[in-house]
Predict the 3D structure of the following.
Amino acid sequence: MELFLQTLINGLLVAGVYALVASGLALAVGVVGIVNFAHGEFLMVGAFVSYLMFTFAGLDPVISLGLAALVAFVVGAVSYYGLIRPILNAPELNQMLLTFGLSIALQNLALLMFGGDTRVVSPPYQAATVSFGGLSFGLVPLVSFLLSAGLLSGLYWFLGRTRLGFAVRAVSQNRLAPGLLGIEKEQIYLLAFGLSAALAGVAGVMLSVTLNASPTVGAAYTLKAFAIIVMAGLGNLRGVIPAAIILALAEAFVSTYIPGGGGWVEAVFFLVIFAALTWRSWRVR
Amino acid sequence: MKRASRLSGSGITIGVILLVSLVLPFLPLGRWEAFALDTAQFAFLISALALSWDLLARTGQLSLAHGAFFGLGAYAAAVASPALGTIPALLVGVLVAALSSLLLGLATLRLHGMYFAIATLAFSEVMRTFVLKASFTGGSIGMIVPPAFGGSLPLGSYYLAVLTLSLAVGASLWVARSRLSYGMAATRQGEAVARVLGVPVVRVKLIAFLISSSLAGLAGGVYGMKTLFLSPYDAFSLGRAVEALVIPIFGGLYTTLGPLLGGIILVGLETYLRLVVKDGYLVVYGVILILTILFLPKGLMGLLTKRGGHA
């Protein structure tokens, strides 16, 4: 029973970061209409910002959060302005190829600059644990979860309560009408894409402590984020949180209860995608 | 008239490339011979992979799993070859790749193209994990592959590569001339409209996917018999999936000559880059991919046939 509860809590804590990464991707897909295969690379940018700040300036990852968000926002905005905007009306195949190319380029650029080693940011509190009623969990995952929950609440508040948020949702619902109402569509796209990257960048800082900063750290999260938004329905922001919880719990339970499960965890996201798609495809008929 | 003459022009180039590939082992290359044959063989297999990817792209679908079909074909052929012999083993590789694409296609091709692309990316990742974990593949250590035809023919695997390339070229040309090509083009340009026009959209995509993955599996099988050693990091590397799609785009989508020329040029470039920068050479592919999409969406073929509408 205790093992069960512990697994449940670990899974839920991970779900926070998953939801953060996937919400960013859902923004890019839902608002801009671009399937962004480079989403995980924005996360990697955040992780490396955290690593570089910690190693060369001695900055605590908590302080790097804002900077990483800013850097990722700029990288996202520049990517949008220079690469995505020219192909907004191109065939979908070309759009997906472009973001895939961006992913390959950024990933291998990082490989050339930093090498393939995994680097961990280890502040003094990295291994600290919090005990509560016989269960214990890491301080960093707990703080990451709370921070993710806070940021997601902020995102929902922004989209649901502010005029700019209304504009973002309007653009995601209809391509033509918002322009007639005086909403600058391109600026909204820029904002949404930058915001999407910034969310990934923040998640990258968290992962630089709990996991590592390496050129390929983002690739796995691109796939997990895709698994989540495929479950939620592409571009559907509301379904992201429950879907993130499902994926994270499935992974946690597989790694605890399946013998030799450590390796199969990496296959869970695929089963989730495959199951979601099969279900969807039978429902479509 | 113009169209006919252009078609025959690219036909002649394709013929010349295939002829050169046939006689290459007998040219006086001196001490470069081993290197030239090895590079050429690699270029042929990767070009065949690129041609197979292009076949599916003609229906507007983005496959990121061609590296996985290549790897599956390679491993299946390698596992089967001691018991069955070279040619049946290659057929087993083709079958395994085709069956996996059938499963993947049945689950995803009914849906929007985005879902298909995502599912193929996930599939290729999970296949690498599977081969790393499974016991009969040698895991991360890799496995030794018996040479083609028991090593009795020194040029055996070279000519298998030529045969694979010829099959891929043949399939590409045949599909372009068949009725299927209209269904593919209609599916690509607007699925809803194609459906209304009576095109069996899902079936067209599925057939294209099956032909495409079979060819990719064949190329993989021959690749294993060329390198004589397979590891998950090589056979299932992201590099294969990237090559499979950058080459057709660089050369020219929906053509036969484009992927062929693109393959020879880019594999040459890659062979050089690997010597210079080793790990990060894929960055060049990423940049080529981005630049081509932005500035040259019709690829090299677009440059060659500037005035000729869509090639």
